Input
Amino acid sequence: MLIETKHFGQLEIEEKEIIDFPEGIPGFPEIHRYIPLEEKDSPFLWLQAVDNIEPCFVLINPETFYPNYVPYIDESTLSILRTKDKADLVYYTIVVVPEDFKKMRTNLQAPLAINFLEKVGKQVILNQPEYQLRYYIFQELQGGGIDASANQEVK
Amino acid sequence: MIGDNVEITVVEVKGDQVKLGISAPKEVSVYRREVYLAIGEENREAAKINLAALKMLKK
Output
Protein backbone atom coordinates (compact mmCIF):
# COMPACT_ATOMS: atom_id res chain seq x y z
CA MET A 1 0.00 0.00 0.00
CA LEU A 2 1.05 3.60 -0.59
CA ILE A 3 1.49 5.81 2.46
CA GLU A 4 2.44 9.42 3.06
CA THR A 5 5.51 9.68 5.33
CA LYS A 6 6.75 12.61 7.31
CA HIS A 7 10.35 12.57 6.07
CA PHE A 8 10.49 10.34 3.02
CA GLY A 9 7.56 11.44 0.86
CA GLN A 10 5.24 8.76 -0.47
CA LEU A 11 6.36 5.20 0.12
CA GLU A 12 5.08 1.85 -1.00
CA ILE A 13 5.01 -0.46 2.01
CA GLU A 14 4.22 -4.12 2.54
CA GLU A 15 1.08 -4.45 4.60
CA LYS A 16 2.44 -7.57 6.26
CA GLU A 17 5.28 -5.52 7.76
CA ILE A 18 2.93 -3.27 9.72
CA ILE A 19 3.30 -3.43 13.51
CA ASP A 20 0.15 -3.04 15.56
CA PHE A 21 0.29 -1.13 18.85
CA PRO A 22 -3.10 -2.11 20.29
CA GLU A 23 -2.97 0.54 23.03
CA GLY A 24 -1.30 3.20 20.92
CA ILE A 25 1.59 4.85 22.71
CA PRO A 26 1.42 7.58 25.39
CA GLY A 27 0.93 10.95 23.72
CA PHE A 28 -0.53 9.29 20.61
CA PRO A 29 -3.12 6.86 21.94
CA GLU A 30 -5.25 6.90 18.80
CA ILE A 31 -2.46 5.80 16.43
CA HIS A 32 -2.18 2.02 16.30
CA ARG A 33 -0.43 1.01 13.10
CA TYR A 34 3.23 1.78 12.47
CA ILE A 35 5.73 0.72 9.85
CA PRO A 36 9.43 0.36 10.69
CA LEU A 37 11.69 1.91 8.06
CA GLU A 38 15.35 1.02 7.93
CA GLU A 39 17.96 3.34 6.61
CA LYS A 40 21.22 2.09 5.19
CA ASP A 41 24.32 2.59 7.36
CA SER A 42 22.37 4.20 10.14
CA PRO A 43 22.17 3.17 13.78
CA PHE A 44 18.58 4.38 13.76
CA LEU A 45 15.30 2.83 12.81
CA TRP A 46 12.35 5.00 11.82
CA LEU A 47 8.86 4.21 13.02
CA GLN A 48 6.29 5.89 10.82
CA ALA A 49 2.55 5.93 11.51
CA VAL A 50 0.70 4.21 8.68
CA ASP A 51 -2.70 5.91 8.73
CA ASN A 52 -1.41 9.37 9.48
CA ILE A 53 1.60 11.41 8.43
CA GLU A 54 2.47 11.95 12.10
CA PRO A 55 4.11 10.78 14.21
CA CYS A 56 7.34 9.45 12.82
CA PHE A 57 9.83 8.46 15.50
CA VAL A 58 13.54 7.79 15.46
CA LEU A 59 14.39 4.63 17.35
CA ILE A 60 17.65 3.11 18.44
CA ASN A 61 18.64 -0.26 19.81
CA PRO A 62 19.68 0.70 23.36
CA GLU A 63 22.29 -2.07 23.41
CA THR A 64 24.28 0.09 20.98
CA PHE A 65 25.44 2.18 23.90
CA TYR A 66 23.94 0.55 26.98
CA PRO A 67 25.10 -3.07 27.19
CA ASN A 68 23.01 -5.45 29.25
CA TYR A 69 19.82 -3.48 28.89
CA VAL A 70 17.35 -5.93 30.40
CA PRO A 71 13.81 -4.61 30.81
CA TYR A 72 11.58 -6.49 33.21
CA ILE A 73 8.50 -7.52 31.23
CA ASP A 74 5.49 -8.71 33.20
CA GLU A 75 3.00 -11.37 32.20
CA SER A 76 0.21 -9.05 31.11
CA THR A 77 2.64 -7.30 28.77
CA LEU A 78 3.76 -10.63 27.35
CA SER A 79 0.16 -11.54 26.68
CA ILE A 80 -0.49 -8.22 24.89
CA LEU A 81 2.61 -9.01 22.84
CA ARG A 82 1.15 -12.45 22.09
CA THR A 83 4.03 -14.52 23.38
CA LYS A 84 5.12 -16.41 26.46
CA ASP A 85 8.78 -16.08 25.67
CA LYS A 86 10.70 -12.85 26.22
CA ALA A 87 13.21 -14.05 23.64
CA ASP A 88 10.58 -13.18 20.98
CA LEU A 89 10.82 -9.50 21.90
CA VAL A 90 13.11 -6.85 20.48
CA TYR A 91 13.57 -3.53 22.29
CA TYR A 92 13.99 -0.12 20.75
CA THR A 93 14.02 3.17 22.56
CA ILE A 94 12.63 6.43 21.21
CA VAL A 95 15.19 9.12 20.45
CA VAL A 96 14.54 12.83 21.01
CA VAL A 97 16.56 15.11 18.73
CA PRO A 98 15.83 18.63 19.99
CA GLU A 99 16.84 21.99 18.47
CA ASP A 100 19.84 21.92 20.79
CA PHE A 101 21.00 18.57 19.46
CA LYS A 102 23.62 18.14 22.16
CA LYS A 103 20.66 17.37 24.36
CA MET A 104 19.83 14.44 22.17
CA ARG A 105 18.51 11.69 24.37
CA THR A 106 16.63 8.44 24.48
CA ASN A 107 13.98 7.08 26.78
CA LEU A 108 15.32 3.99 28.55
CA GLN A 109 12.46 4.03 31.03
CA ALA A 110 9.86 3.22 28.41
CA PRO A 111 11.22 1.06 25.58
CA LEU A 112 9.12 -0.15 22.68
CA ALA A 113 8.92 -3.91 22.99
CA ILE A 114 8.15 -5.41 19.61
CA ASN A 115 7.29 -8.97 18.72
CA PHE A 116 8.18 -9.07 15.03
CA LEU A 117 6.83 -12.61 14.67
CA GLU A 118 3.32 -11.50 15.62
CA LYS A 119 3.76 -7.89 14.41
CA VAL A 120 2.66 -6.39 17.68
CA GLY A 121 4.26 -3.80 19.93
CA LYS A 122 3.84 -1.85 23.11
CA GLN A 123 5.65 0.96 24.86
CA VAL A 124 6.42 -0.61 28.21
CA ILE A 125 6.79 1.58 31.28
CA LEU A 126 9.50 0.06 33.46
CA ASN A 127 9.83 0.27 37.20
CA GLN A 128 13.62 0.02 37.03
CA PRO A 129 15.08 3.27 38.39
CA GLU A 130 18.43 2.71 36.63
CA TYR A 131 16.69 3.27 33.29
CA GLN A 132 16.14 6.99 32.88
CA LEU A 133 13.42 8.83 31.01
CA ARG A 134 16.08 11.10 29.51
CA TYR A 135 19.33 9.29 28.85
CA TYR A 136 21.66 11.65 26.97
CA ILE A 137 23.40 9.98 24.05
CA PHE A 138 24.99 12.70 21.94
CA GLN A 139 28.55 12.07 23.14
CA GLU A 140 28.19 8.36 22.93
CA LEU A 141 27.04 8.53 19.33
CA GLN A 142 29.96 10.80 18.51
CA GLY A 143 32.17 7.85 19.34
CA GLY A 144 33.25 9.28 22.66
CA GLY A 145 32.28 6.10 24.47
CA ILE A 146 30.20 6.09 27.58
CA ASP A 147 30.32 9.41 29.37
CA ALA A 148 28.20 8.91 32.42
CA SER A 149 28.91 12.43 33.65
CA ALA A 150 26.84 13.88 30.81
CA ASN A 151 23.88 12.07 32.20
CA GLN A 152 24.33 13.54 35.61
CA GLU A 153 25.06 17.11 34.58
CA VAL A 154 22.51 17.76 31.87
CA LYS A 155 19.14 17.61 33.44
CA MET B 1 -10.41 -1.87 46.82
CA ILE B 2 -10.47 -1.46 43.05
CA GLY B 3 -12.22 -4.43 41.53
CA ASP B 4 -11.70 -7.68 43.40
CA ASN B 5 -7.97 -7.79 43.66
CA VAL B 6 -6.39 -4.35 43.80
CA GLU B 7 -6.03 -3.05 47.31
CA ILE B 8 -5.01 0.47 48.30
CA THR B 9 -3.93 1.18 51.86
CA VAL B 10 -2.73 4.31 53.62
CA VAL B 11 0.74 3.36 54.82
CA GLU B 12 1.67 6.57 56.57
CA VAL B 13 0.38 10.08 57.17
CA LYS B 14 3.15 12.57 57.93
CA GLY B 15 2.31 16.29 58.04
CA ASP B 16 0.66 17.04 54.70
CA GLN B 17 2.01 13.91 53.01
CA VAL B 18 0.21 10.63 52.64
CA LYS B 19 2.02 7.47 51.64
CA LEU B 20 -0.15 4.94 49.82
CA GLY B 21 0.52 1.29 49.31
CA ILE B 22 -0.94 -0.52 46.31
CA SER B 23 -1.13 -4.25 46.26
CA ALA B 24 -2.15 -5.75 42.95
CA PRO B 25 -1.70 -9.05 41.11
CA LYS B 26 1.52 -9.16 39.12
CA GLU B 27 -0.31 -9.00 35.81
CA VAL B 28 -1.60 -5.50 36.67
CA SER B 29 0.67 -2.59 35.77
CA VAL B 30 0.85 0.08 38.46
CA TYR B 31 2.55 3.40 37.88
CA ARG B 32 1.93 6.97 38.83
CA ARG B 33 -0.10 9.13 36.47
CA GLU B 34 2.72 11.69 36.27
CA VAL B 35 5.06 8.97 34.98
CA TYR B 36 2.62 8.16 32.19
CA LEU B 37 2.16 11.85 31.39
CA ALA B 38 5.93 12.49 31.35
CA ILE B 39 6.39 9.66 28.88
CA GLY B 40 3.61 11.03 26.65
CA GLU B 41 5.28 14.43 26.77
CA GLU B 42 8.68 12.96 25.87
CA ASN B 43 7.05 11.07 22.97
CA ARG B 44 5.55 14.30 21.65
CA GLU B 45 8.99 15.92 21.86
CA ALA B 46 10.44 12.95 20.00
CA ALA B 47 7.95 13.45 17.17
CA LYS B 48 9.50 16.88 16.45
CA ILE B 49 12.82 15.69 15.14
CA ASN B 50 15.61 18.11 14.37
CA LEU B 51 16.27 16.41 11.07
CA ALA B 52 19.25 18.55 10.10
CA ALA B 53 21.12 17.64 13.29
CA LEU B 54 20.38 13.99 12.82
CA LYS B 55 21.73 14.03 9.26
CA MET B 56 24.87 15.79 10.37
CA LEU B 57 25.44 13.23 13.08
CA LYS B 58 25.26 10.31 10.72
CA LYS B 59 28.17 11.48 8.59
Chain A touches chain B through 36 residues (CB under 8 Å). The first helix of chain A runs from residue 75 to 80. The radius of gyration of chain A is 16 Å.
